[in-house]
Amino acid sequence: MTDRSVLRALREDDLPFLERLSTDPEALGPFEWPGFTDVQARRRRWEEDGYLGPHSGMIAVTDEDDAAVGIVSWKSEGRGTPVGVTYEIGIAIVPEHRGRGLGTLAQRQLIDYLFDHTTANRIEATTNGENHAEQRSLEKAGFTREGLLRGRSFIGGRYHDTVYYGLLRSDARPR
Known about the structure:
By secondary structure, this protein is α+β, with helices and mostly antiparallel strands. The chain has a single domain (7-168), classed as Gcn5-related N-acetyltransferase (GNAT) (Aminopeptidase), CATH 3.40.630. It is 28% helix and 31% strand. It has helices at residues 15-23, 25-28, 39-49, 102-117, 132-140; strands at 7-8, 56-62, 68-75, 86-93, 122-128, 144-155, 158-168. It has a seven-stranded mixed beta sheet, with helices on one face. A hairpin with a 2-residue loop joins β6 (144-155) and β7 (158-168). The radius of gyration is 16 Å and the shape is globular. Keywords: Transferase. This is RimJ/RimL family protein N-acetyltransferase. GO terms for molecular function: protein N-terminal-serine acetyltransferase activity; protein-N-terminal-alanine acetyltransferase activity. InterPro entries: Acyl_CoA_acyltransferase, GNAT_dom, Ribosomal_N-acetyltransferase.
């Protein structure tokens, strides 16, 4: 994987891809599939603000042909701190594009984007305790594993542990 830019704003022609994430259990995989969701919700959000709101956003992760093959998202909810100090990020890459370093590169670029264009001091990420590939990806992107919440999520008919990661603006980041 090269260090080419893999992130771009979502476009209207990406909406069928976003709909796939709401209708195809295989697209998000066993660690993220929440069940079927409102397919039109993604279109409504895109029409509202193109997924680039003041406190949350989502952009496309692209392949060599600039086609959307995943998404990265961020949100700032405050949780005891002023909005904009802490962002939680997430990622989804469709199965046919996993395992090539694209997720790690996308997360690194999103981290750079948030630290360059927001007042973020802290970026957080969570992942399923069994999602070892995502845990490696977060660590390669510079995150520190900070904790484990037992039985925090319910996916696929059972409870799962959630692993918490954090990255501060002042932390060294791999290049």
